[in-house]
Amino acid sequence: MVTSERRFSVRFIVAAATLLLAVGIGLISLMHNTQDHNHLAGEHTELAVDFDRYLDVYAEDPVQATRDLFSEYPAEEVEIEEATRRVGYRPVIANSLPAGYSVDSIHLMKMPCCTCIKTICSDDQGQPFVVFEHDAEQAVWFGNRVKTQCECDGMPTTVIEFNGQIAATWPVGKRSVTIVGAKDIDEVTKLMPYLGREPTSG
Question: Less crowded by CB within 10 Å, the N or C end of the chain?
Fold first, then answer.
């Protein structure tokens, strides 16, 4: 016959073991989450350093800057419909560009944040600029550079100046668009009606 004291002892042991198991599972989960967070933070830091270097090189040689970035992050040249199929949204570059501007090439680039669309364009004087489109805001790309908040064609925009050129980023839906190599704010404003809105389908 099992005494009430022994029953209490068994229940206590079972309860204690259950509690220890729950605490153990919680600690393991916390460790994994911390490792994931640290890994992600490390990727973002690395991305900021790489993009900061990209801006420095771009100011002197846009072609070399593209080569350097593509050597760090795999890229594949695609047509716009293939880009749409692969990323699951129609990129803003599908809106076309103002008269005199042209699209030179479209690339899918695998980055830590997402698969990014990078479009190389030329302005009406044949000077290149680059349009990045990514799943979320990437202000980290600008690192510690001085940022200015403004509105371009009514769109809230983050702008930095680098070596006499402009880089700017703004939201489009849940995504973010970044332009590198604009001559000035006026050019960003000129492009905004085309690159600052969701494209129509088709």
Answer: N
N- to C-terminal Cα separation, the chain: 80
Query: In this structure, what token pair is assigned to residue 67?
Result: 């080569």
pTM, full prediction: 0.72
**What's the CATH fold of domain 74-195?**
Protein Transport Mog1p; Chain A (3.40.1000)
Q: What is the pLDDT of residues 44-69, one digit of tens each?
A: 445 556 677 877 788 788 888 888 87
d(CA 60, CA 5) in angstroms, rounded, equals 83
Question: pLDDT tens digits for 15-28?
Answer: 555 555 544 454 44
Beta-carbon count within 10 A of 152 CB:
22
Q: Which of 76, 83, 183 is nearest to 128 (CA)?
A: 183
Give residue 113's identity as a one-letter amino acid code: C
Angle at 39 between CA 35 and CA 40, to 5 degrees: 120
